[in-house]
What does this fold into?
Amino acid sequence: MIRVVIKRREEPIPYATSSMFSIFTAIFISLLILMFFGVDPVLAFFGAFVKPMTNRFGWYGVINNGLILLLCGVGLVIAFKAGVWNIGAEGQILMGAIAATWVALYLMPNAEPNMIIASMFLLGFLAGGIWGVLAGILKAKMDVNEVLSTMMLNYIAYQLVYYLVMGPWENPRTRYPVSKPFPENARLPVLSKTLPLAIPTLIIAVIAPIVLYIFLYHTSIGYELRAVGSNPEAARSYGISQGKAIIIAMFISGGFAGLAGVHVVASGMPPQLRRPEQVSRGYGFIAILVAWLAGLNPLATYLSAIILGIFIIAGFQIQILFKTGIGVTNVFIGCLLITLSVAETLRYYDIIIRIEIPRVYKSVQKDVGGGV
It folds into this structure.
């Protein structure tokens, strides 16, 4: 007989320990899965995780993906801390991209570079934030489930981008659904030709986690957001408005995803609005893991964004090396999601499996008495 005994730990396992265990376990399980599809796990590990880290092109890919994931992830930390499940970062990225395209091509195409770039980021933040606020208002005023509303808003944003790149903003010089390229003054400046990382995005990404950490832990509004997220009833009894906290959290969360959308379109080759799946590329969903892996700590998103950036590059490398399908990155991300879920349970609970062998008792009948 097998018995499973679940016992709460007296002291939870440190989050850093459980997270590192999750990462290495996810890599091991992913490679094991890929082995059944003809991928050599040893060659895959060195080709996908070791080799890219030995050259600047690999690090460029990791950091570039990490910048997008950090901006989305640090915004999601704010929403999750307020107890709001924002699953709409994909749509918020797209709205930021739309705003940047409008500024670059139609609002001020001839403006000075500093003016046009600053306007793209400002309006991109506002567009993403407003898209997040729509779901926040539905949650605060009508108690609409934010998971459903943010997911549906993703699809609306997808179709809006399709409409623009195949309709009024279509580039007449190409058959592909893209907008016209941005003018030269709207292109984000880069560090160098050998390391073409966008300087404005890099600056924002370095500053953002620090600013949001101070906002969360050293301001009254940040305290209200955390209070609503941890105990809504207690927060209400102290006069804290849950609706206000939800709307503020969703605006900030959506705004930072909008900044990521500005970066994607304004740093592309060429910079332009493209089909929605080529803009958001699943970053909004992967950023949920960035926030979760960071333990909802804004400062820890620096590391978690880089780790997820490595996972994305590893998936691309395996596709190239072994000519596999496009779902390799999803295998890594999916395995990490599972291992993080299991590790979160094991942090607080000790699971003991006991195998008990039942004893067999034999009754022994004694012969008492005898013949006369």
About this structure: The first strand starts at residue 2 and ends at 8. The chain is about 65% helix and 5% strand. Confidence is low (pLDDT under 50) at residues 368-372.
